[in-house]
Amino acid sequence: MAEALLFKPVKLICGIIAARDDIFAKSITYLTDRFGPIDHTSLLMVFKFTDYYAKQMGEGLKRKFVSFAELVSPEKLSETKIRTNVLEEDMRKESGSAKRIVNLDPGYMTASALIMATAKDFSHRIPLQKGIYAHLELLFGKNDVKTLSWTYPDYRTDEYQQYFLEVRKTYLKQIKSR
User: Fold this and answer.
1) Spatial CB neighbours of 130, under 8 Å, sequence gap ≥ 6
2) Selection from 51, 54, 42, 47 nearest residue 14 by Cα
3) Which of 12, 50, 103, 118 has the highest Cβ tally under 10 A?
4) Using CA atoms, how far apart are residues 75 and 133, in angstroms rounded to an integer?
């Protein structure tokens, strides 16, 4: 029997959508407790490209991304998404809110792509396990970002893409130093 091949480690990232600064702060504390130190944090950006979360979370939503210093196995993506879903619910209960107060979107970066986890099935998404799918969001060229026909509108913005290119530089250095 042939020996199993191991995947190259990847850079764990997480998008955070919320309306209040204290929820962002608490989310980051909880995420670092579970996934380790953060090495990149994006600017806080207005989340204006869809009203999908407004019914669940209210108006005035913003988004921030964080990336984690420790590289992980890509095989952990579905487990990570399940953990962040539980964390969202724990934060909702702690706040006493009847509605969702935060959306946590984990994913990972490779040298060539940004993959996000989702619980929503669609034709271009790949089933992983336990109801979680992999969603190819962006492709990376040598110094640029390539979008796909299904790339979400906010991921097409310069602000998002510049953040991901910075994280990618760190990731490439980490992989090279291994």
Assistant:
1) 78, 82
2) 42
3) 12
4) 12
Domain layout of the chain by residue ranges: 10-176
Closest residue by Cα to residue 15 from 140, 103, 126, 141: 103
Which DSSP string do the residues of 8-69 spell out, in sequence order? Answer: PPEEEEEEEEESSHHHHHHHHHHHHHHH--EEEEPPPEE--S--TTHHHH-SS-EEEEEEEE
pLDDT in tens, the chain (178 residues): 566 668 999 999 999 999 999 999 999 999 999 999 999 999 999 998 888 788 888 889 999 999 999 999 999 999 999 999 999 999 999 999 999 999 999 999 999 999 999 988 888 888 899 999 999 999 999 889 999 999 999 999 999 999 999 999 999 999 999 8
- Given a contact cutoff of 8 angstroms between Cβ atoms, the answer to whether 117 and 106 are in contact is yes
